[in-house]
Design a protein that fits this description.
This protein has 139 residues and is mainly α. It has one domain. Helix content is 49%, strand content 0%. Helix 2 runs antiparallel to helix 4. The longest helix is centred in the first third of the chain and has 19 residues. The protein is globular and about 45 Å long. It starts with a helix and ends in a 22-residue tail after the last helix.
Length: 139
């Protein structure tokens, strides 16, 4: 019950503070990545969330906290290398994790609708590659 009311930042910190162990590996393995990659992903998502919560500029920001690239993943992920210091990579991580907990997520459709609503937004400044929406992860 406590975890239901715990903030995402606190959850990220709790995971980080776990000693290297079978429990930490099992949590990360559930999401199909190593524990070090999973930890960096959680930290990066919290960082981006804080940028948004404090109304800072995000669309063309170079992210100081960069998530690691997994050597291998258990599931759909991006096939094209991208910059880890841009928003696109963090959004890919969020989509990957969402697919693990809810395969019927509407996140890709909502993101595409947002871009359609603001066609003048320069998504390449956020690190989006050409034809990003053709990636299996975003289908």
């Amino acid at each position: 019950m406590t975890m239901e009311v715990t903030s995402f930042g606190t959850l990220s910190m709790l995971y980080k503070l776990l000693k290297p162990s079978l429990t930490k590996r099992r949590i990360a393995n559930y999401y199909g990545v190593s524990d070090s990659v999973f930890e960096s992903w959680l930290h990066s998502i919290v960082y981006v969330r804080n940028i948004c919560a404090h109304h800072s500029r995000l669309w063309n920001k170079t992210l100081r906290i960069r998530p690691l690239f997994p050597r291998k993943v258990n599931g759909m992920f991006i096939s094209t290398p991208v910059r880890s210091d841009r928003l696109y990579y963090v959004l890919c991580i969020i989509q990957y994790l969402l697919l693990k907990v809810n395969p019927n997520t509407t996140f890709p459709a909502r993101l595409k609708a947002l871009f359609a609503e603001f066609p003048d937004a320069d998504i390449s400044a956020m690190g989006f590659p050409t034809d990003w929406d053709k990636e299996t992860l975003w289908q």
